Amino acid sequence: MYERTRNGGLRSRVKSGEMITVNCKSWMKLGLAIVLSGAVNISGTAQTFDSSATGTVKGAYFVRQVLTIPDANTSAILRAVSLIGTMTFDGAGNYSFTGQLMDSQSGNAQAFSTTGGYAVSANGFFQVANPIHNFLFPNSAGSDIEFGAVGALGPVAIVASSTENSNGYNDVSSTARLALWGRWRSSPARRKLQTATMTSLLPYRQVPV
Protein backbone atom coordinates (compact mmCIF):
# COMPACT_ATOMS: atom_id res chain seq x y z
CA MET A 1 0.00 0.00 0.00
CA TYR A 2 1.11 3.57 -0.68
CA GLU A 3 0.38 7.07 0.76
CA ARG A 4 0.75 10.48 -0.83
CA THR A 5 3.54 12.79 0.46
CA ARG A 6 3.27 16.56 1.10
CA ASN A 7 4.85 17.36 -2.25
CA GLY A 8 2.40 15.13 -4.10
CA GLY A 9 4.61 12.02 -4.43
CA LEU A 10 3.85 8.39 -3.36
CA ARG A 11 5.68 6.35 -0.80
CA SER A 12 5.20 2.84 0.56
CA ARG A 13 3.34 2.47 3.83
CA VAL A 14 5.00 -0.91 4.46
CA LYS A 15 7.62 -0.70 7.18
CA SER A 16 11.04 -2.18 6.61
CA GLY A 17 10.40 -5.03 9.05
CA GLU A 18 7.12 -5.88 7.36
CA MET A 19 8.82 -5.81 3.96
CA ILE A 20 11.39 -8.34 5.19
CA THR A 21 8.56 -10.61 6.38
CA VAL A 22 6.87 -10.41 3.00
CA ASN A 23 10.13 -11.16 1.20
CA CYS A 24 10.82 -14.15 3.47
CA LYS A 25 7.38 -15.56 2.85
CA SER A 26 7.85 -15.09 -0.88
CA TRP A 27 11.17 -16.93 -0.83
CA MET A 28 9.65 -19.73 1.25
CA LYS A 29 6.85 -20.15 -1.27
CA LEU A 30 9.34 -20.13 -4.14
CA GLY A 31 11.56 -22.70 -2.39
CA LEU A 32 8.58 -24.96 -1.69
CA ALA A 33 7.54 -24.79 -5.33
CA ILE A 34 11.05 -25.77 -6.45
CA VAL A 35 11.18 -28.69 -4.01
CA LEU A 36 7.75 -29.94 -5.06
CA SER A 37 8.60 -29.71 -8.73
CA GLY A 38 11.84 -31.59 -8.08
CA ALA A 39 9.99 -34.29 -6.14
CA VAL A 40 7.59 -34.76 -9.03
CA ASN A 41 10.47 -35.15 -11.47
CA ILE A 42 12.29 -37.62 -9.22
CA SER A 43 9.23 -39.77 -8.59
CA GLY A 44 8.45 -39.80 -12.28
CA THR A 45 11.91 -41.15 -13.20
CA ALA A 46 12.41 -44.92 -13.01
CA GLN A 47 15.72 -46.12 -11.57
CA THR A 48 17.73 -48.57 -13.66
CA PHE A 49 20.75 -50.64 -12.66
CA ASP A 50 24.01 -49.44 -14.17
CA SER A 51 25.44 -52.41 -16.07
CA SER A 52 28.36 -50.60 -17.69
CA ALA A 53 30.99 -52.79 -15.98
CA THR A 54 29.39 -56.18 -16.65
CA GLY A 55 32.27 -57.13 -18.93
CA THR A 56 34.73 -57.01 -16.02
CA VAL A 57 33.27 -60.25 -14.62
CA LYS A 58 34.02 -62.95 -17.17
CA GLY A 59 35.17 -66.54 -17.02
CA ALA A 60 34.86 -69.43 -14.57
CA TYR A 61 34.27 -68.74 -10.86
CA PHE A 62 33.92 -71.08 -7.89
CA VAL A 63 30.54 -70.51 -6.20
CA ARG A 64 29.24 -71.45 -2.74
CA GLN A 65 25.67 -70.56 -1.75
CA VAL A 66 23.63 -71.41 1.35
CA LEU A 67 19.89 -70.70 1.62
CA THR A 68 17.64 -71.25 4.64
CA ILE A 69 13.87 -71.04 4.99
CA PRO A 70 12.86 -70.07 8.55
CA ASP A 71 9.57 -70.44 10.37
CA ALA A 72 7.76 -67.10 10.20
CA ASN A 73 6.86 -67.20 13.90
CA THR A 74 9.79 -68.89 15.64
CA SER A 75 12.60 -68.31 13.10
CA ALA A 76 13.52 -72.00 13.40
CA ILE A 77 15.03 -73.30 10.16
CA LEU A 78 12.48 -75.43 8.33
CA ARG A 79 14.53 -76.17 5.23
CA ALA A 80 18.06 -75.54 4.04
CA VAL A 81 19.58 -75.77 0.57
CA SER A 82 23.20 -75.31 -0.45
CA LEU A 83 25.11 -75.57 -3.69
CA ILE A 84 28.72 -75.70 -4.75
CA GLY A 85 30.18 -75.62 -8.23
CA THR A 86 31.36 -73.51 -11.13
CA MET A 87 29.57 -70.44 -12.44
CA THR A 88 30.79 -69.28 -15.85
CA PHE A 89 30.12 -65.65 -16.78
CA ASP A 90 30.16 -64.71 -20.47
CA GLY A 91 30.96 -61.01 -19.92
CA ALA A 92 27.70 -60.00 -21.60
CA GLY A 93 25.22 -60.52 -18.74
CA ASN A 94 24.63 -64.28 -18.82
CA TYR A 95 25.93 -67.13 -16.67
CA SER A 96 25.75 -70.91 -16.58
CA PHE A 97 26.16 -72.93 -13.38
CA THR A 98 27.17 -76.58 -13.03
CA GLY A 99 27.75 -78.33 -9.74
CA GLN A 100 26.12 -80.10 -6.81
CA LEU A 101 23.12 -79.16 -4.69
CA MET A 102 22.16 -80.42 -1.22
CA ASP A 103 18.56 -80.15 0.02
CA SER A 104 17.67 -80.93 3.64
CA GLN A 105 14.29 -82.28 2.49
CA SER A 106 15.89 -85.13 0.56
CA GLY A 107 19.14 -85.36 2.51
CA ASN A 108 21.05 -86.35 -0.61
CA ALA A 109 23.45 -84.45 -2.85
CA GLN A 110 22.41 -84.18 -6.47
CA ALA A 111 23.80 -82.79 -9.70
CA PHE A 112 22.40 -79.37 -10.53
CA SER A 113 22.80 -76.95 -13.38
CA THR A 114 21.03 -73.71 -14.26
CA THR A 115 21.42 -70.47 -16.17
CA GLY A 116 20.65 -66.84 -15.43
CA GLY A 117 21.62 -63.24 -15.85
CA TYR A 118 23.93 -60.85 -14.03
CA ALA A 119 25.15 -57.25 -14.17
CA VAL A 120 27.98 -55.16 -12.69
CA SER A 121 27.90 -51.40 -12.23
CA ALA A 122 30.82 -49.00 -12.55
CA ASN A 123 31.04 -48.57 -8.77
CA GLY A 124 31.29 -52.33 -8.15
CA PHE A 125 27.69 -53.17 -7.30
CA PHE A 126 26.65 -56.61 -8.51
CA GLN A 127 23.36 -58.36 -9.19
CA VAL A 128 22.74 -61.94 -10.27
CA ALA A 129 19.76 -64.25 -10.72
CA ASN A 130 19.58 -66.45 -7.60
CA PRO A 131 20.54 -70.03 -8.69
CA ILE A 132 18.92 -71.83 -5.72
CA HIS A 133 15.69 -69.90 -6.36
CA ASN A 134 15.71 -71.47 -9.81
CA PHE A 135 15.81 -74.89 -8.12
CA LEU A 136 13.07 -74.14 -5.59
CA PHE A 137 10.77 -72.28 -7.98
CA PRO A 138 11.52 -73.43 -11.55
CA ASN A 139 8.35 -71.80 -12.87
CA SER A 140 9.67 -68.38 -11.84
CA ALA A 141 13.36 -68.96 -12.59
CA GLY A 142 15.34 -65.74 -12.78
CA SER A 143 12.77 -63.69 -10.89
CA ASP A 144 14.75 -63.42 -7.62
CA ILE A 145 17.89 -61.29 -7.65
CA GLU A 146 20.91 -61.40 -5.35
CA PHE A 147 22.62 -58.07 -4.72
CA GLY A 148 26.21 -57.61 -3.64
CA ALA A 149 29.59 -56.26 -4.63
CA VAL A 150 32.69 -57.37 -6.50
CA GLY A 151 36.32 -57.12 -5.40
CA ALA A 152 38.25 -54.11 -6.65
CA LEU A 153 41.08 -56.14 -8.21
CA GLY A 154 40.24 -58.47 -11.07
CA PRO A 155 37.54 -58.71 -9.82
CA VAL A 156 38.56 -61.88 -8.03
CA ALA A 157 35.76 -62.24 -5.46
CA ILE A 158 32.02 -61.53 -5.21
CA VAL A 159 29.67 -61.66 -2.23
CA ALA A 160 25.90 -61.36 -2.69
CA SER A 161 22.56 -62.05 -1.00
CA SER A 162 18.86 -61.81 -1.78
CA THR A 163 17.16 -59.02 0.17
CA GLU A 164 13.48 -58.41 0.86
CA ASN A 165 12.39 -61.33 -1.30
CA SER A 166 8.75 -62.42 -1.22
CA ASN A 167 9.58 -66.09 -0.57
CA GLY A 168 10.72 -65.65 3.03
CA TYR A 169 14.16 -67.23 2.74
CA ASN A 170 17.63 -66.00 3.73
CA ASP A 171 20.73 -66.68 1.67
CA VAL A 172 24.32 -65.69 1.03
CA SER A 173 26.67 -66.61 -1.79
CA SER A 174 30.42 -66.21 -2.20
CA THR A 175 32.19 -66.37 -5.54
CA ALA A 176 35.92 -66.52 -6.31
CA ARG A 177 37.81 -66.68 -9.57
CA LEU A 178 38.45 -70.37 -10.24
CA ALA A 179 42.12 -69.84 -11.13
CA LEU A 180 42.79 -68.61 -7.59
CA TRP A 181 40.68 -71.20 -5.78
CA GLY A 182 43.47 -73.80 -5.59
CA ARG A 183 45.80 -71.42 -3.77
CA TRP A 184 42.96 -70.26 -1.50
CA ARG A 185 42.04 -73.81 -0.46
CA SER A 186 45.53 -74.48 0.89
CA SER A 187 46.06 -71.07 2.49
CA PRO A 188 46.09 -70.51 6.30
CA ALA A 189 43.49 -67.75 5.84
CA ARG A 190 41.04 -70.25 4.37
CA ARG A 191 41.44 -72.63 7.31
CA LYS A 192 40.87 -69.79 9.79
CA LEU A 193 37.76 -68.67 7.87
CA GLN A 194 36.43 -72.24 7.71
CA THR A 195 36.87 -72.67 11.48
CA ALA A 196 35.14 -69.35 12.19
CA THR A 197 32.31 -70.20 9.80
CA MET A 198 31.66 -73.64 11.28
CA THR A 199 31.70 -72.18 14.80
CA SER A 200 29.14 -69.55 13.86
CA LEU A 201 26.90 -72.24 12.31
CA LEU A 202 26.87 -74.56 15.35
CA PRO A 203 23.36 -73.39 16.39
CA TYR A 204 22.16 -74.47 12.92
CA ARG A 205 23.67 -77.95 12.69
CA GLN A 206 20.90 -79.14 10.40
CA VAL A 207 22.06 -76.74 7.67
CA PRO A 208 23.97 -78.55 4.90
CA VAL A 209 27.16 -76.48 4.63
Overview features:
209 residues, disordered C terminus, 4 helices, alpha+beta, two-stranded antiparallel ribbon, eight-stranded antiparallel barrel, Lipocalin, 2 domains
Account of the protein in words:
With 209 residues, the chain is an alpha+beta fold. The protein folds into 2 domains: 2-41, no CATH class; 54-204, Lipocalin (Beta Barrel), CATH 2.40.128. The chain is 26% helix and 38% strand. The protein has 4 helices and 10 strands. It has helices at 16-43, 131-136, 178-185, 188-200; strands spanning 2-4, 10-12, 58-70, 77-90, 94-103, 109-120, 125-129, 145-150, 157-162, 170-177. A hairpin with a 3-residue loop joins strand 4 (77-90) and strand 5 (94-103). The chain is globular. The model is unreliable at 16-25, 27-45 and 196-209 (pLDDT under 50).
CATH topological fold name of the largest domain: Lipocalin
* Amount of beta strand: 35-45%
| Beta-strand segment tally | 10
Structural class: alpha+beta
* CATH architectural arrangement of the largest domain: Beta Barrel
Number of contiguous helices: 4
Taken together, the total number of domains comes to 2
Q: What general outline do the C-alpha atoms trace?
A: globular
Rg (C-alpha, Å) = 29 Å
CATH class of the largest domain: Mainly Beta
Reading side by side through the largest sheet, how are the strands ordered? 3-4-5-6-7-8-9-10
| Overall helicity | 25-40%
* Mean of residue pLDDT values: 74
Low-pLDDT residue spans: 16-25, 27-45, 196-209
List SSEs in N-to-C order: EEHEEEEEHEEEHH
Distance N to C terminus: 81 Å
**Main sheet overview:** 8 strands, antiparallel, barrel
